[in-house]
UniProtKB/TrEMBL annotation:
Pfam families: HIT. It comes from Rhizobium puerariae. The keyword Glycosyltransferase does not apply. Residues 11-118 form the HIT domain. One of its GO terms (biological process) is methylation. This is HIT family protein.
Length: 143
């Protein structure tokens, strides 16, 4: 295997086990999507597999095959919900790349013409704002 082993004692592992809360947007047998608590743009969300892997380097291709259609579904929903001009999908692998949480995740970030992203892992967003933003995306998914 490439890189270090998966350690289940990470924040997203805790979210998956229900040990810490999240603003959930979407869940199926293999996948969970929820709001990023330090959004780089309103509507910034994360899509994670339930199967353990540290990042894309050690992920099972079969897990990725189920994950990417959900990333697409959430990218489309976030674009509509936030009337974005575009969507940035980011995925970091190992500290040198900027990874800070060691459970595989894809960032889905609404983008607007001429508007720069806020810093990665910058400022905590208000809980009420995150809840309202999750509801916006859930509303689109429900349509
Ligand atoms: P990365 O590992 O790709 O660098 O980023 C981890 C992301 O997780 C960051 O964007 C950060 O804001 C987000 N994050 C860190 N801790 C938590 C948390 O407890 N809950 C949620 N929902 N997001 C988190």
């Amino acid at each position: 295997m490439t890189g270090q082993a998966y350690d289940s004692n990470n924040i997203f592992g805790k979210i998956l086990r229900g040990e810490i809360p999240c603003h959930r947007i979407y869940e199926d047998a293999d996948t969970l999507a929820f709001m990023d608590v330090m959004p780089q743009s309103p509507g910034h969300l994360l899509v994670i597999p339930k199967a353990p892997s540290r990042n894309i380097l050690d992920a099972d291709p079969a897990v990725l095959a189920k994950l990417i259609p959900v990333v697409q579904k959430l990218a489309r929903a976030a674009k509509e919900a936030f009337e974005a001009d575009g969507i940035t999908v980011i995925q970091f692998n190992e500290p040198a790349s900027g990874q800070t949480v060691y459970h595989l995740h894809f960032h889905v970030i609404p983008r607007y013409e001429g508007l720069a992203l806020k810093p990665h892992s910058g400022q905590m967003e208000d809980n009420g704002v995150l809840a309202a933003n999750a509801e916006k995306i859930i509303g689109v998914l429900g349509n």
